[in-house]
Amino acid sequence: MEGNYMSADQAVKLVKSGDHVFVQGSSSIPEALIAALARRGDELRDVVLYNAFALGRRVSPLCDPKLKDSFLIDSFFVSNAVRGWVNQGYATTTPRFFGQVPQLFRDGTIHLDVAFINCSLPDKDGYVSFGVSSDLTPSAVECAKIIVAQINPLMPFTYGDSVIHQSRLDAMVRVNDPLAETPDVIPDEKEMCIGRYIAQQIPDGATLQVGIGAIPNAVLHSLGSHKHLGIHTEALTDQMVPLITSGVVDNSRKAVEPGRSVASLALGTRRLYDFLDHNPDILFRDIAWVNDPFIIAQNPNMAAINSCLEIDLSGQVCADSIGTRIYSGVGGQHDFVYGSSRSHGGQSFIAMLSTTSKGENKIKPVLTPGAGVVTTRFQTNWVVTEYGAVNLRGKNMLERARLLISIAAPQFREQLDRAAFDMLGYAYRRWR
After folding, report:
1. 242: how many CB neighbours lie within 10 A of its CB?
2. Using one digit for the tens of pLDDT, what is the confidence trace for 106-156?
């Protein structure tokens, strides 16, 4: 097997103090390279590491107070591997629509010295694949001066923008490193109720963007009797596989890449990763293309299904923070909400349980101080809880408040009604 193979400890010597390093994300963090880089911490200073959504099997070894002057993690989407580190003040996040991050690399706003990636075994022609993470990786390897790759037999070989020839890799490290897995969460009855409400609004022939978690799974569970659905989504998940294999998803009505499911990354279990391996019906593309609202909008009947942490009575959606504490990021929610609004017959859905796990209300008079607005009140359409589905499109502030209160948990509705009157005044009581 040709290639510039070496150990992880040798490969990370290509990183120098002051370098800017891209780290591949989704479920394919190059763990061996990160561990080796942490072992070099005493030798390095002021290395900045950029990542996006990165599901770790553990907290990153770079999140160590002894390494606080060696490494600064700068995340475009804060996830479990670094969330605590960001909120302790040792790391940071750069606000940016996920689909616009590649532009920062390509126009030089953020320069990259090194890219750490996690790839499949080479094929017979010497090409390797980024596998489950073609989001930021194509732009990162295009812009980085040095590319360091784990070569991993457990990484599926996927097609599209996720392929690179091994001759472009400056260092290759053999690993046998399982990808991080997200359990295939079984929705409870409340979540299934939300899934059914949304599925009722989705016509046959629609193209789907669906997020990650129990409620998105509930939506996918509820689509089994639909026909001719398509997929154009940021993330592929386990529950999409049965819809594809059963023929419910055939991508026949899509305008963009008809006949193939389109995604930028994958998050799930080994079953999903094995399904993706050398599967020509799945196309992985650069996030700048997948999340482009004007490309999304070309698909008729686009249905964008996302979740949030809280929403206020005007329809402002917070999905990235709990007050001032950063929890995640904007991801592709805005891109797909906007893209679906421009699609012929398109719809967007913000779905959530009405209360938190602690019983706190998630529909609030105003957002928690410090909460970030991911989807503005000007863009919010369908909002769905276990108590119903309401469409805010074309609704004034009085109507929005009443509709949102109607799907809040019953024990909070009177309180919300009083708050709406305090904010909106006479017209709220008079005009119905």
Report:
1. 14
2. 999 999 999 999 999 999 999 999 999 999 999 999 999 999 999 999 999
DSSP H/E element including 6: none
**234 belongs to the catalytic site:** yes
CA pair distance 172, 116, nearest whole angstrom:
10
For the stretch 261-295, what's the b/e string if a residue is b when 16 or more beta carbons lie within 10 angstroms of its beta carbon?
bbbbbbbbbeebbebbeebeebbbbbbbbbbbbeb
Does domain 8-174 fall into CATH 3.40.50.970? no
Q: 196 is written with which tokens? A: 């059914």
**CATH 3.40.50.300 given to domain 189-427:** no
For the chain, which residues make up each domain, given as ranges?
Answer: 8-174, 189-427
Name the catalytic one among 31, 191, 234, 386. 234
Cα separations (Å) of 77 from 66, 96, 136, 203, 319? Answer: 24, 9, 12, 32, 11
The torsion angle over the Cα atoms of residues 182, 184, 187 and 192, rounded to 10 degrees, is 110
CB 287 within 8 A of CB 331: no
* Cα(309)–Cα(404) distance, integer angstroms: 15
Single pTM value for the model: 0.94
Residue 180 is given by DSSP the state P
